[in-house]
Amino acid sequence: MTDLLAKRPPRAFFTLSTDAWTKPFWDAAAEHRLVAPRCVDCGHFRLPPTPFCPQCRSQKIDWVTLSGRGTVYSYTVVARAVLPDMEANLPYVPAIVELEGAGGARLISNVVDVPVEAVRVGSAVRVVWDDEGGPTVPRFTLAD
Fold first, then answer.
1. Cα distance between residue 67 and residue 25, in whole Å
2. What gap in Å lies between CA 93 and CA 109, rounded to an integer?
3. Residues 7-32: pLDDT tens digits?
4. N-to-C CA span, the chain
5. DSSP state for residue 109 in the 8-state scheme
6. What pLDDT score was predicted for residue 144?
């Protein structure tokens, strides 16, 4: 896979459905702000947002704006299309990113616009916003 750039997955396969617990995340993304929910009572961050804090069972949430930086916790490279419509979007790199300033909370996203071979567990990344063709989605690229 030498010199292949990590692409974005096909937007046609992305459908956004929000609820009371996830809407603040997507509203902030539309403003190019990366946020994470933090429990007001115990301070535990949780992603994805859930109705109850897994630490103390509180339902009180404070949405904290983050720096947009993080670290690749895990990733894989998708190099084969399972469906013909995905062929033009290969390779893409789904990743779990541990978010800076979020107490260990992790977000599933993609690493994009970098050579696939440059992505490693532990790589420093920064958010980039994907506005094209639908709701704004946070993706990540390697940090400068």
1. 14
2. 9
3. 988 877 778 888 999 999 999 999 99
4. 22
5. E
6. 78
